[in-house]
Amino acid sequence: MKKTTLGPQTLIYPMPACLIGADVDGKANFMTAAWCGIANSNPPMLTVGIQHHRYTYRGIKQNMVFSVNVPTESLVDQTDYCGIVSGSSDDKAATCKFTVFYGHLQNAPLIEQCPVNLECKVVHILNLGSHALLVGAIEETHVSPDCLTDGAPDARKIKPVIYGSGAEKCYFGLGEMLAPAFSTGKQLKKKG
Amino acid sequence: MKKTTLGPQTLIYPMPACLIGADVDGKANFMTAAWCGIANSNPPMLTVGIQHHRYTYRGIKQNMVFSVNVPTESLVDQTDYCGIVSGSSDDKAATCKFTVFYGHLQNAPLIEQCPVNLECKVVHILNLGSHALLVGAIEETHVSPDCLTDGAPDARKIKPVIYGSGAEKCYFGLGEMLAPAFSTGKQLKKKG
């Protein structure tokens, strides 16, 4: 089957829709980011790509810390809102009725309604062009107790928001479990 | 609601399960990676975190190019297999019956059965500890024609594999559409 070439495109599937938090001039602000992913296991680190002019980025540079908040399905409107409105013109946390709390890092604002919250310290910034790529060391993880199963975070209870780019820019929920990881592939191993 | 703290954890939801391709000593090899994400829009770039000892990484350093292949649900066993077996002991492309092709970069192997393939040139390598973080410039995108709608990639046709870490390490499918992006949040905007 011949493939169709589309030129360079930012098309990884799936992508998250996370809420990145920072105190800007001492006040909590949040922006939505799909350009993020885990970068390192030990120590735990992640990346977030943020446009240089973003209001949230100003706060990140002020404190060199930020948060990554994983929204749940019922927050899809708030997640979208934080991606289309700038904190320079609105108190987004108030509009979205977010309950903001602080953890270990003290000035990385966290959203109580989001089932997973990561507190991060900036360890690298790369200027890649349109975006600054932040590498953050994950310093603490907060999870809503009702999203834990036997003490571990449970994706089916978290119900994350998945960003789908392409033909229709929209948010999806998590679907059915397909197979167990580090297991289902073993059946392909050659015998003997 | 009081949150439970878990210490530093690599918990972004959702995470992809991509197949990273490289020619190692001239032969196509693929490994599974959940530690990846988009980094920059213009020019399009992505990140992949890879453990230093990985066989695939050897090939990436040889050619300074790699591919990111987005598997579809029916490839979940192959996707898992490429994460649990090393190319040093098996011809994974043969075992998985992948049809390998090459595009613009000539030595970044692509998997025809994967609906989306990105060809990448390494532009940065950061040693973060357990993993090397590769920043790749996306040079070309290949999409299976049957996964396009009006010429654009369609997540519902691509049916990507979603990696879920935590209580159960498993793969999920894409769920229902929740809401349109850059739109559903507008209803939260203050009137007047």
Give a structural overview.
- Two copies of one chain form a homodimer.
- The mean pLDDT of chain A is 96.
- The two termini of chain A are 34 Å apart.
- The first copy, chain A, has 192 residues and is mainly beta.
- Chain A has helices at 55-63, 76-84, 92-95, 155-158, and strands at residues 4-5, 15-16, 18-24, 27-33, 36-40, 45-51, 65-70, 100-101, 110-111, 116-127, 131-143, 148-149, 152-153, 162-164, 170-180.
- In chain A, a hairpin with a 2-residue loop joins strand 12 and strand 13.
- Strand 11 (131-143) of chain A pairs antiparallel with strand 1 of chain B, so a sheet runs across the interface.
Offer a few descriptive terms.
three-stranded antiparallel sheet; 43% strand; mainly beta; homodimer; globular; 192 residues
Structure summarized in a few sentences:
2 copies of one chain form a homodimer. Chain A contains 4 helices and 15 strands.
Which geometry of chain A do the CA atoms define?
Answer: globular
Distance between the termini of chain A: 34 Å
Biggest sheet of chain A, in brief?
Answer: 7 strands, antiparallel
Count, helices of chain A? 4
The percentage of residues in β strands of chain A lies in 35-45%
Helix proportion of residues of chain A, in percent? 10-25%
Compute the average pLDDT of chain A: 96
Task: Annotate the secondary structure layout.
2 copies of one chain form a homodimer.
Chain A: E1 4-5, E2 15-16, E3 18-24, E4 27-33, E5 36-40, E6 45-51, H1 55-63, E7 65-70, H2 76-84, H3 92-95, E8 100-101, E9 110-111, E10 116-127, E11 131-143, E12 148-149, E13 152-153, H4 155-158, E14 162-164, E15 170-180
